[in-house]
Amino acid sequence: MVNWKALGLGVIITLTLAYLGKYIPHLDTPIAPIIGGIVSGYMVGGSYKNGIIYGGLSAGIAGFVYTIIVIILNSGIGLATTVSMNIAPMLLNGESGIITASIIILGALISFVTYLIIGLLGGIIGIAIKERNAEKQILRS
Q: Which residue from 38, 21, 37 is spatially nearest to 29, judged by alpha carbons?
């Protein structure tokens, strides 16, 4: 069973911090995926495997989405024009006009993998924090 709340909150936190990283130096990478991974790992609990899966996946999805959003917002109408005027006709003619689309997709995939790896660490940290808090709770009882 997928814990959508932990996954979604991790994605939202990572996206928010990555966006704020445009205005606050050094907040986007690696801080954003680590914090998003920590939150997801902490919320999901359980084993370190859960922390790795949820921390990595939430940060990876956020990295992919963030890259696409940044490309679209920075390119705006220019990207739409490039796609409609250059790529689509060249695809129909069999020419190699896929370079722009390939670069966009490659950038998003690289961002996904980078954020995923960093998010894995955050998920492990989140599980460790939850376990440590559980141990402290047991000792207090």
A: 21
Alpha-helical regions (H) of 4-98: 4-20, 31-44, 48-75, 77-81, 88-93
Digit-coded pLDDT (tens) for 49-106: 999 999 999 999 999 999 888 877 776 555 555 555 555 555 545 454 566 667 778 8
Number of neighbouring beta carbons within 10 Å of residue 123: 33
Q: How far is CA 7 from CA 23, 38, 41, 51, 86, in A?
A: 25, 11, 9, 11, 37
Cβ proximity of 18 and 32 under 8 Å: yes
- pTM of the full structure: 0.79
Residue 94: exposure state from Cβ atoms within 10 A (0-12, 13-18, ≥19): exposed
